[in-house]
Amino acid sequence: MGRHSAPVVMSTSRKITTAAAAAGAVFGAGQLFATATAAADTTGGFGAVPPELEAMLPAGFELPQIALPEVQLPQVQLPEGPAAPVISWPAAPQDVIGGAIASTYQPVKGTLTSGYGPRWGSHHGGVDIAAPIGTEIRSAASGTVINAGAANGYGLWVQILHDDGTVATYGHIDSYTVVKGQTVAAGDRIATVGNRGQSTGPHLHFEVWDPSASKIDPISWLQARGVNPDWAVSA
Ligand SMILES: [Zn+2]
After folding, report:
1. What is the pLDDT of residues 122-158, one digit of tens each?
2. Cβ atoms < 10 Å from Cβ of 154
3. Distance in Å, CA 154 to ligand 1 centroid
4. H or E stretch at 184
């Protein structure tokens, strides 16, 4: 049985006494609460004491002042994580010509849609080889990556400086897997065909710059190095 049903079996006088005691307790609790409130927060920041607990305290009882110690959080210095790994696809199996590893590689499979030279009243400084987006592009020769990233007009490009001072440029690529300063071998996968920048469809725009940065005919450059591209030619 709960205590709230207890008065049912009590005598009248007992009930009155109980009620008076209860009223006194409530009054006392009110006083105590007022005192506690006037003395600002004496609960150490834990909020008001529950009334039923306060009623048990003698009148005028001062709650102890609880001062929580200031906690200084330790300064945690996180260790530097390992440098992001440089993704490098495995090199393609090298073409073997006459028992020697080829020094020059056809950079992409696809269809030659625009040759080097005059085009639409201007000069086309490279060749366009159409291929589906994502088609792998391989470095035409060994060398050092001198640019890999965004470039005006090219969308994204990769440029590789070769030992003879020429620079191969791969434009409108969708992605690249080399970083500036990296050395590559002929036939290494370096990028994928895309359609970024001033491009009218997925293709590789392939240029070769001579050491004075003049754009030369990439097909002549490849042929001089023993590679005859198997690109189909479209009108
Ligand atoms: Zn082009």
Report:
1. 889 999 999 999 999 999 999 999 999 999 999 999 9
2. 23
3. 9
4. strand 183-184
What is the predicted pLDDT for the residue at 205? 97
Does the domain at residues 96-233 carry the CATH identifier 3.30.43.10? Answer: no
Check the CA dihedral 131-133-136-141 and report its sign: positive
Closest CA to 31 of 1, 68, 57: 57
Residue 122 Cα, ligand 1 centroid: separation in angstroms? 12
Question: Which CB contacts under 8 angstroms, 24+ apart, belong to 62-68?
Answer: 62/35, 63/36, 66/42, 68/44
Residue 203 appears among annotated catalytic residues: yes
Ligand 1 centre to CA of 135 (Å) is 17
Other beta carbons less than 10 A from residue 91's beta carbon = 14
* Chain segment 154-212, per-residue pLDDT in tens: 999 999 999 999 999 999 999 999 999 999 999 999 999 999 888 889 999 999 999 99
Please state, in angstroms and rounded to a whole number, the distance separating the CA atoms of residues 124 and 222: 17
